[in-house]
Hints:
Elements: E1 8-11, E2 20-27, E3 32-35, E4 40-45, E5 54-59, E6 62-63, E7 67-70, E8 77-78, E9 80-83, H1 89-94, E10 101-104, H2 111-123
Antiparallel strand pairs: 1-2, 1-7, 2-3, 3-6, 4-5, 7-8, 9-10
Amino acid sequence: MKIKVKDKVLVADGKYKGKTGVVMRVFEKTNRVTVEKVNIRTRHIKKTAQQAGQRIKYEAPFDVSKVMLICPNCNKAARVAYSIPKKGPSERHSGRAGKKFRVCAKCHESVEQAISKADNKKKS
């Protein structure tokens, strides 16, 4: 799956089209994601002898095909591509392959490095 936790995404289809948020959870098996403050549902819990009834609001997951990654470099919603760096002459025979990483399809910049830099700025 090309969308990961902590990615900023734009909802491109459905009831919440145009809203943006951060991915909270990714469900690989069912191809679904949960986005912060999008697709909010209400669950009614019946009262019991121990506790009163209540209503709980939560973000429900929806299909990953409805979201697009917002590139941290160009700040536009874009598709995600994969890129594998070319191996040098010393790495060809050692068996070490280049690590696959995600790339913005519009600006062709790495998405992985930009997200980690943004997280480091928030921590300091």
